[in-house]
Amino acid sequence: MTLHVLYLVHDLADPAVRRRVLMLSAGGARVTLAGFRRGDNALAAVEGLRPIELGVTADGRFAQRLGAVGKACISISRELRDVARPDVIIARNLEMLAVANRAVTAFGGRVPIVYESLDIHRLLLRGDFVGRVLRGAEARLGRKAKLLITSSPAFVENYFRPLSGLDLPVLLLQNQVLALGEEDDAPPPARQRRKGDPWRVGWFGALRCSRSLAMLSTLSRVTSGRVEIVLRGRPARSELKDFDDVVAAEPYMTFEGPYRNPEDLPAIYAGVDFVWTIDFFEEGQNSTWLLPNRLYEGCRHGAVPIALAGTETAHFLEDRKIGLVLPDADGSRLQELFEGMDEESYRHAFEAVAKQHPSLWSVRRDDCEAFVRRLATLSTNTDGAATVAVTRSPTYRDQGGLS
Questions:
Q1: Of 248, 286, 321, 359, which one is least surrounded by beta carbons within 10 A?
Q2: Closest by Cα among 237, 228, 249 to 207
Q3: Rounded to an integer, what distance in angstroms lies between the CA atom of residue 390 and that of residue 147?
Q4: Smallest Cα–Cα separation from 310: which of 333, 348, 283?
Q5: Could you read off the pLDDT of 242-280 as tens digits, one per residue?
Q6: Which bin fits 6, alpha (ψ -120 to 50), beta or left (φ > 0)?
């Protein structure tokens, strides 16, 4: 019997939402997608799937989002009236966990909830009344959940286990590239460079870090174009309010718009030598702990990652002896890195990345099937006991419980 998953999401246009839907479908599940439209962003298209819109939210406006969630909780029974009772509900982020609890009631109870949290919002980490209230709400709403999905072990170690108040089994599901074709086992093709060609650094994905934008802009200027910067993805204009003006004023920086994941990844990463995996948006917290999409995307397609010492991304690279790690966030360190870069040193850095097994960077069809089987155990164990063993792979692993 096909597993029916109701996927409740905070942003229907988020490319990561599209990737998760594709992963569930590749694993054999039937997916109903419902969630919020984020401003004017075009929805991330998934062939054959028409999402249910629960309202419109605005990036960076927490109070407005809270009001939209409240309205959705009231109207969820009506919005889902034509949806068959799902076997599992996945709630992406805290606000959707609230909606999921209401949806369970609408379906008559006993539908297991999976809480998917791939970022830790800074409000949850505050030590004041606001932070305590939000963590309390997360713990209360998470009582009906049967599983937590997160993308970095540092999230478990630094937030979920010591601070969250949740008591759930954990599934580590990294932000890897969805690779469903037989050709996806091939290593990235060798890079052909001519002496004197500019180095190209790609900053792709969710563009939300003003400090990264400033550092990369400065790098391209002080090197007089010996280093060019290519931006692709979705700028968070609530954080980068002058994004278009800044990029237009930079002679060695271009913004080439959004891209489709995974379809466009080989082409866009073939056009850059390095991938920028540094993020200062929530420095010392979420940005220090995450393992970003661009890490896996870039390495899978042969771009050499640049990370910052002391972050989870740097630990990941150092464990595998790949990539370039800046000792600190001083922009002069970045300039020094490229002043010492030549074709030979780049070739060694590229080869170290290219020789890694593709399974480190990719989610394959058998991984998708194992993931869906793991979800199916929840619908047959509604008491919440996470006792059914699953196939373990490089893609994800059960982390045990939080307690």
A1: 321
A2: 237
A3: 14
A4: 283
A5: 999 999 999 999 999 999 888 899 999 999 999 999 999
A6: beta
